[in-house]
Amino acid sequence: MTRPQQRAPKGRTRDRDDRRAVVDVLLARAQRGALSTAEGALLAEHVREEQRLADATRRAMAGTTQALDRHREAADAAIVEAEQRTEAVEEQLARTQAERDRLARDVEAMHDGINQAAREAYGERRQHRQALAEQRARLDQVLAVLARVRNAEALGDALAAVAEHDGLSPTAARIHGRMLDRADTTEARLAEQQREHDIALATQRRRAEGWKRHTREAERQAGRYRIAWLAARRDRQADRAAMAAELPLVQAGQQALASRCPFPCATCAAETAPRA
């Protein structure tokens, strides 16, 4: 089994290794107390160099740490932005899903409406066909009845056909036709006319009796008015006669009153003046 060959250190790594090897040797000599002045100066130089390199490394590490912090902050911001974008995409996806569900419901409702309208149209069409069939059947029945009426030999047969069309049984229709035939005879017509004449005559008689009662009542009321007028006329004539009889006495009293008044005035003259 062969060991992997190690690469030779290069650059600053090789210098650091050499310097550390020298420092190890000098420290060992210092521990033994065999360190010379030149070796002490070399050791101090190497120590200061290590300190300088450590400070430089520390500063570089601080910059690296700051860069890492900046990268971490940028990564956090990128993560937050990605999460926000993800949330926005999820919200958009939810809205899209809701819109798709709504459209699906609308389409389903539209299909249901179309199916319902189709069923209603089919039902109306079937009802219309049934109505047309019924109308055609009734029309055929009416045409058949009209044909029977045209071909009827008597009025009773024609009326029986019409009555049968109206819902009567054939027997009842025939009886009805016979009754109509009998009612159409001359005797039946004369009896009907006589009955109408009797009804009209009775009506006129009732009206005449009513007018007679009204006339008698009007005459009685006119007599009462005439009697009252004559009584009022007699009372008025009696009042005039009494006033004419009392007029000389009134005039004499007024003259006596005027003769007693020492101061003739217009009032006394007016009271004593004879009235027409």
From TrEMBL:
Species assigned in the record: Streptomyces silvensis
Keywords from the named record: Coiled coil
Protein name according to UniProt: Uncharacterized protein
Coiled-coil segments on the chain, per record: 72-106
The organism's taxonomic lineage, starting at the top: Bacteria, Bacillati, Actinomycetota, Actinomycetes, Kitasatosporales
